[in-house]
Task: structure prediction
Amino acid sequence: MTSASSRKSVANNGTSHRGFKVLVGGGLGSLPTEAAVLTDFLPEEELLPTIEAILRVFTETGNRKNKLMARLKFVLRAKGIEEFRRLVAEKRKVSQAPTETFTVPTPIQPTLVTIAPSPLSSVTAGTQTDPEYDRWAGHNLMFQRQAGYGGVWVKLSAGTFHSNQMRGLADVLEKNKLTGVRIAVNQDLVIPWVPFDRVRAIYDELRAFDLATAGARTISDVTGCPGATTCNLGITRSLTLAEVLSRELKRLHRSRNPEIAHQNQRLPEFLRASSHCRYRVLRQRQEGWRTNRLRIISFCSAAR
Result:
């Protein structure tokens, strides 16, 4: 793994030159390794030739026979950073990559920095009689610090996001001239800088692509990793379990006590725990749902 972060060097005569700090050999997994600094400053025109030189070193010295060992971090462990720098310098001399700077125009709109407050508020924009919309706005719409603007949360079931929904969301953003979308840590999406006078229209457009599900940031918004679906260390099919729990918890907090909807801070813990730990966590969470405890535990077993 190679990483480069943008930097700027200022010469004695006051002129500046853009470049990069380059780190190599970092990685996680069962043997986490901190990346080593290849160089503190690399001129931008040298980036591509240096990357080619690093790849040449890895091709000649890396373990290509064992895919579990085919990592740059193992080369760095065996050679050390000083020897690795020397090898990269040698391969740089024979690099065929051009030493030039490439400028590519970006289609992404610039981020809003200075923005005038919208004359409308969420109260004036929210004069709707649709209970489904009101329920969605209660959980999926939040205020921004900038007056008149809010963030719209798009709840994704267990993080599932289909290609047609991606294209539809892109069309919604472009049509409403929104700056973009953010991926949240709870596997949902967040659309910032939404004027309150456009919220209802955006809701209707998202609903056409099944992206207007209410309940974001509530107890029914369950986070789950792939688990046993793709991971050899997993003991639970967490994504399937997350979907089942989301439906059941949504029904529970509607029929029992709406306040439990906001008790979502630590619910996903048990999705990555062992069987007995999940049972203990669920018992602690079920103070108000004693009659449903065995039902939820049975879902855990069925989803494994």
In short: The domain at 122-207 is CATH 3.90.480.20 (Sulfite Reductase Hemoprotein; domain 2).
